[in-house]
Each structure stands twice: as C-alpha cells, then as structure tokens.
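Researcher: Structure for this, please.
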Amino acid sequence: MGDAHLYQRLLEELEAGHRAVLMTKMDSSADQAAVTKTLIAGHDLIRDELDPELRTPLEGGLARGEFYFDNGAGTDGRATLIEPFFPEAQLIILGGGHIAVPLVEFGAKAGFKVTVVDDRPAFANHSRFPLANKVICESFAKSFESLNLNKATFVVIVTRGHRYDKVCLENVLKYDTAYVGMIGSRRRVAGLKELLVSEGHDPVRLEQVCTPIGLEIGAVTPEEIAISILAQVIQYKRKGEKAARKSNNWPELDLAVLSELARSDQGPRALVTVVATKGSVPRREGAKMVVWPDGRTIGSIGGGCSEGEAIQVAYDVIRDGRFRYLDIDMTGQVAEDEGMVCGGIMKVLVEST
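Model: Predicted structure, token format:
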C-alpha cells in the first residue's frame, strides 16, 4: 500500500506520453524481507545516485522496452527487477472515409487506442466507428488542439480526395511521433513534400513519412488496404524506424492493474508479476495480476491452473508479507491438460502491496 503514490506518478508519466521504468530491489537475506521501488523517467537518468552498473539496463528499458531481471544466481538473497512502461499506443486516423472503417476495427482489436478525426458529422460519429476510443468532428487544422501527439502516437493521413493532406501533414510534423503514414501516389506525395520543403519544413523529417502508406501486399479493397496500413504500423511499433532495423519490445500495459495499484485504500493485496520466461508461454515479462485475500483478482498472467498456483502463493504473501518467487512449468502434460499450445516456463514474483 505504501507504493500507491509511486504508481500514481507512473500513471501521470504515461498520460503525459513519457516512458518510464520501475526498478524493484529485493533482499530476502534479512529477517524481514525488504522490497524497495524506484520510478525512473528519461530525465532521471542523469541522477548521480543511480547505480552505474544498472545504467545500461535502465537505458535499454527506456529506449527499447528491454526487461531486466537479475537474482544474483540466488546466492545472497538479493535481486533487481527493471520493468519498462510505455504510454498506451495511440492510432490517430485523420479522415473518416471508407478505409478508416476497417482500420479502426482492426486497430482497436490489435490493442491500439484509436482516435478518428473528420470534419463531416456523417463521417465522424460513434455509430460509424463503435470501436474508436474517441471520434472528433472538427476541422483538421483545429483538431490538433484535442490530440495528444507523442512518441507513442501512430498517425495515418487518409483525408478525402487528399484535400486536407497538406494541413494535416504540416501539423503532424510539429510533433515527435512514432509513425506517420500518408496515402497517395508517389508523384503526388513527392510534389507535396517538395512544397513543404520550400516552405521551410525539415526534409529529413519529411523523408521519414511513409508514402505510399502500408506494406506492399497488393492490397485493393478497403479492408486489404487497412490491413497493409496496420501491418506497417505494427512493424514500426515493434521494430522502430526503418533506418534503425532494431527490434523493440513494446511492453504489455494493463492500465486497470496500474490504476488499482495507485489506490491506497484497498487493504492488503498481493502483486504477481511475470519476471522471466523461457519457451512458449501465454504471457510475457511484465504481465501482472493483483490478488486479494477474499479471492478477487484483476489482471492475468495466463489463466488456468498455473494462475491458480500463483494465487495460492499470493495468499501466503498477504499473510506474512514476505515476497516469493514461483516457477510455473507449462511444458508437457501441464500445458496439454490446460488445452494450451505452450511449452515453456514462467518465473513470477509475488509481493505484498
């Protein structure tokens, strides 16, 4: 419960579009097992008091979403966990035409927080886009006052007849986003880029705009085009810019769990976190679940009997306050009995909170 303020700060950082890492240090060598947590955002890396040996994994967490767990081979009872947290990935679709309809549906199902912008009431409403988190009916130029564009934002420009492509693109270029893609022929887009360069826009930034938009899969129908666009967006989310060619991990983010941890009035609870995985498992590092002594839970580390085992350990942790590790074996008969296509092992940390 004493860490509620820390999770509140974490939610504030994510809402502001900032990346952060949560460093947890555990020591079971003393009579009373100790767990201390430190929240570190990008601007905190200059702090002198940070352990120099941990600076590399901290930077890796912030830049590439790399998860870090070191239990010191289990010899001295000390362990360090570094968890990266990225803002919720936003998909901003500028234009509510025929391509936007399947793109909103597919994007929402792929885990994006989707916003649609169009200046026509008939094309900017929740009846047309029931899976969109937000639908903005406003002029494209003015809509940017309502958009929180940041490094977790993926922008798709598909305005009708390309009429508002220029105003959208020149506004998007004011922000540091994860991805910008614009529909249109190579010739038309090249002409628009030349015009924007002549008006003083950065040519390097313009070259980073994906045009023609989407992966080249021969897409023809609106649904196929939407799939090609979303595939490219996911490629940028997972691999970063084409020039980097380096894989990124976009950490799992369960806002419901974080919001619960930010509350200080919920009595004794246990937090279960996946800290290491090997082989094929249902959830990756960072997946979380909160357990109450009355059996309530929120979040998931994969379900089934394996999750039930973690819940039983959580009850012990709630009673005595000492953190524990648990290795969940999902190989062989265990996975088969659960009906899972798995064959791996998860190590989880169970701690009181």
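Researcher: Any notable elements?
Model: The mean pLDDT is 88. The chain is about 30% helix and 25% strand.
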